[in-house]
Amino acid sequence: MRNHFTITISDVYGTHEYSFKQFIRKFIWILFAVFIAVWTVGGISIWWLNQKANNDELVHKASVKAFTASLEKTRSDYESLLVEKTKLEQDFLSTRSQIAFLDQALQGLEELVGEGDSESEVDVPPLPLDERVKRVQLDSLGKNIMMSMVPSGPAVANYRGLSSKYGRRIHPITGKIHLHGGLDYRGKTGAAVIATADGVVKYSAMNEESGFGNLVTLVHANGFMTRYGHLSKRTVKLGDYVRKGEKIGEIGNTGRSTGPHLHYEVWFLYKRLNPQAFNDWSLGKYDKIFTKVKGVPWGSLSQAVDMLVKKVEKQLLLKGVSLAVKSPI
Ligand SMILES: [Zn+2]
């Protein structure tokens, strides 16, 4: 028993003896068993945790993928909506500019025919666009009818100015004071002379007696008459129907004339009127003539034209023709 310790334990069951070598061996065995057990449990735990982590990662990856896909879809939806929004904005701007353009055009027309300048102290709500268009059209129709029947505008197509006005003056040939009963248009021989209203040719011939040389006389509706003198050429004959603006002859120097010009007269019934107001008459200055030219029953003439316009409107309504423009939207 050399190099051995012996431990003796005595209790109620008896006495036991343990040699130290035996004890060490047992301790080592227990230690080894504990180590194996810990290592095994640890290994299993690590494997299990690893597996779990792998599973979690897969689940996580799948959810990230799904989320990314949904994000992509949302982004593409957003981009489509953005494109749609830009398109709608452009449509809106284009429509707005069209409406503004129409409104401006209409305002221009209203000003031209004198519809838009009514100054009222009471705030009148603006009329719908189609109603405004209809009013302008009817008003314009009335004014155009009036201006096609009554002499208006210059009697020379390329009007370059006047060499003599209506009024008393010393006659350039006789030297006596007399009433110059018309307007003298400056112009070159051959320049076109035009009818200032619709009418019928009452006279077209050389008239030496009057001093007007080659003379054309037109009769118009409602008692008006116009005369065109000193023509180099007459292009209409007695009884011809002529429209306003149609060529009736050419500027010349026939009759008692000191140079090529057109002598133009406007008559109402048996009286010569100053042609200046008729020459200056336009849609933009429509009302001026009614105050400037006396001796013409403008009131009853306007009433007659209004009745004509109402008849036209009634006919159009009966036929179901709409005067209104289509909405741009
Ligand atoms: Zn003259």
- How many helices? The count is 5
Going by CATH, the architecture of the domain at 153-280 would be Distorted Sandwich
- Gyration radius, rounded: 54 Å
Query: CATH homologous superfamily of the domain at 153-280 - what is it?
Result: Glucose Permease (Domain IIA)
Structural shape: rod-shaped
What does the largest sheet look like? 8 strands, antiparallel
Number of strands: 15
Distinct ligands: zinc ion
The helix content, as a percent range, equals: 40-55%
- Any idea of the CATH class of the domain at 153-280? Mainly Beta
Structure, described:
Among the domains are: 79 residues, no CATH class; 128 residues, Glucose Permease (Domain IIA). It is built from five helices and 15 strands. Helix 1 packs parallel to helix 2 and helix 2 packs across helix 5. The longest helix has 93 residues. It is rod-shaped, with a radius of gyration of 54 Å. The structure holds zinc ion. Zinc ion binds next to loops.
